[in-house]
Amino acid sequence: MRGKIIALALVAVLVAAPLLANTAYAEKEKGLKGREERGRLTVTNGDITVIATAEGKHPAFFWYANSQNNTIYQVKYKGIIEYLDTGQEIFQRKFKAELEKFLKAGESAIKEINASKVGKNVTIAGTIRENRDRQTERLFNYLFQEGSSRIGVNVSKDTKVSGELRGDVVVEGIVAVQGQTFYIKAISISALENIRSQLRQTNPPFFEFNQGKWTFLGFQPISAGDKVIGYQFNYTLSDINGKQFENLKNQIVIRNRLYNTTVKEGDTLVPTASMKSDIIIKSWRWNLNTTAAKILNIDLTKDKLALWLELTAFKGSKIDDAVEEKAKPSLTEVRTGKERIETKENKTAKGEDEKKLEADKDQRKLTMLSDNQVLGGYFNFTNTATVYAKGSSPAQGQSVKVDGSYIGDQNKIRVYILYPNFGAKSLEHDPSIGVTPTEPVNVQYAVDPVALNAAQKAPALGAPAPQPVQPVQVVQPVQPGQPVQPAPSPQQSAPPQPSAGPDNTMVIIGVAVAVIIVGAIAALARRKK
Predict the structure, then answer these.
(1) Residue range 366-375, pLDDT digits in tens
(2) How far apart are CA 184 and CA 122, in angstroms?
């Protein structure tokens, strides 16, 4: 009898083990997953699925709620535009930092020299002609003319001259008047050809992201002890088509993180139904910091960068149709704070100006709608970015203000995130995408952003499922009711903790079931005695 009992117990354990193993695998499949195939990157958790594309195109992210995948949302990163803030505080297309425009504007300024300009510093372009009129010889040395308009230019020993004083030139000086005659007390005069040579060395004000190749650098696990709770993955601008923007190679990164639980990165809440991104611009060659800009007397403190994005939604469309741009956008309205923005019309084609995107507390959150129905998908970005010395850490940087502008574009919305001139430093900013969570948000882990930034990048992977190395140990659990504490730095990473994942749980349950079965068989045997 005792042999039969042992045999039955062994059978019970052997039967239970495969069942429990299958259950554990199913539970694992419901958690965090990531794969790369067909030029697409797919990352998912229990609440949201994100599909990323690049391959030399505009980096784009598509996402949907796992519980309602009939609506797909898209954000497409279009490019970066340098523009001039002339006091409007927002980006508008007409204020692109195209220095040639300022040169042409100076050419027409001769006609506007009048009493209202007296005492003001001006920069104008035109043709210098030697003055042969002896009656005005004392007043000015040269005639400056553009078409039928002419004005005197006084050249003294203090005037800085670049090139010969003949032909097409640009003059900077102070407007003065003597009697009814206006003239310019010249401070500097430059040959127009010198300026045009300088302009040829500047960047175009717009760098379109599909002018380069974006490289996926592989998954990197984010771990708490031996438990993986998230993936970090980068897209890096690894190559440039053409020579004008060669300096941007490896200088722009879109770093993304998706967790299978709600965490707090520093002061930023990252729900499980969202993906947080970091836009990192390591350097930018500013047009208004050039010699040409200085000669044209442009205020060098007022140029900024606009990160151009396009948002839309596809209702009732297949994911392949959305990704391959075969689906028709169905976004009709965006809400941000109390503002309602209609997107049905193509206001861009009509030539309308961009408008200011109103802030909502410490962020700008855009929720997408279709025919007055709230779809639940959103895009948001914080109202501050971090500027830091190139090569150092954002932890040593300083916070700068971020603004925004927008314009409707035929069932899409163009959004411009606006950054100040950060000179020779680097800038980092953190937008997010997501869907409205269906359950209360409970923070389970604190994440150290400094450690995320310092984490070594994983190499690109060829396998369909990610098998990364060197996980980022940057999180620690948060017990209910306890304040969120920062995780240790990479140099002092958290000690490994027992995994609270489904695999260990199922093993414990399996052992318990086997013990119960054995106990029941033993009891039955005793009764038979």
Answers:
(1) 999 998 888 8
(2) 9
